[in-house]
Write a structure and sequence with these properties.
This protein is an alpha/beta fold. The protein has 8 helices and 6 strands, in the order H-H-E-E-H-H-H-E-H-E-H-E-H-E. It folds into 2 domains: 91 residues, no CATH class; 110 residues, Aspartate Aminotransferase, domain 2 (3-Layer(aba) Sandwich).
Length: 225
């Protein structure tokens, strides 16, 4: 399989150490008023850094065969289709996605994923007799705020509870105030990208489903860690 070669390039008893050797930009110097300083990158939640193992594999094993992945009429098309299918299965395995789950490639980052959700959920459908309601948490990044606001839906931010997660009492109160049968979506970050505090996904999801709401979870701040 095409991606098996990539696995071989990073095979090691300590895969984290192996990947760290390929970190592009590690040890870079930059000018400051206090002389040249060593760069320390601390914004991985926003954008991870490039790895030479990945970049080299893309340059040598992907781009030479790059083609439309929706055809098997040519070698390149079939090769890319096979690689895409294998990548989808690897992601499904890593996230414990079962046969009732789907892995959907949405583009770049959480913003693209949430924009896709906005489109799929039909919020922009003007046939809604009641304005859709979006419930978000107390520590959402802009990717999980702006697309909902721009959709025309009513966006309500749930306050932070004493334990740091969404206030479940306020969440239930807002759910009770929504008109029965209207479109209600709870879209929450599983973890704060500032403090790292983790939300009780089971408790929030149970409450949302109790009132007929859809539960969307943003794992950008938690999934990789």
């Amino acid at each position: 399989m095409p991606l098996d070669d990539f696995r071989n390039t990073i095979a090691s008893n300590d895969i984290i150490a192996e990947l760290r050797t390929g970190l592009i930009g590690e040890g870079m110097k930059f000018k400051t008023p206090f002389g040249n300083q060593t760069l320390t990158y601390a914004d991985y939640t926003a954008s991870g850094r490039a790895l030479s193992q990945v970049e080299n594999f893309v340059a040598e094993q992907v781009l030479p065969f790059y083609a439309n992945s929706h055809t098997t009429a040519s070698f390149c098309g079939a090769h890319m289709t096979q690689m895409r299918q294998q990548a989808r299965q690897i992601i499904a395995d890593l996230t414990n996605a079962g046969p009732d789950c789907s892995v959907i490639f949405t583009g770049s980052g959480a913003t693209s994923a949430i924009n896709r959700l906005v489109a799929l959920s039909g919020i922009n459908n003007r046939d809604h007799t009641v304005r859709p309601t979006i419930l978000i948490g107390p520590y959402e990044h802009h990717s999980n705020i702006l697309p909902w606001r721009e959709s025309g839906a009513k966006v309500i931010e749930i306050d932070e509870a004493d334990n740091g997660g969404p206030d479940l009492a306020m969440l239930e109160q807002e759910l009770q105030s929504c008109k029965p049968g209207s479109l209600i979506i709870g879209s929450f970050s599983i973890a704060s990208n500032v403090t790292g505090i983790v939300t009780d996904a089971d408790a929030v999801t149970r409450l949302l489903k109790q009132y007929g709401a859809l539960a969307f979870w943003d794992y950008a701040g938690g999934g990789p860690y």
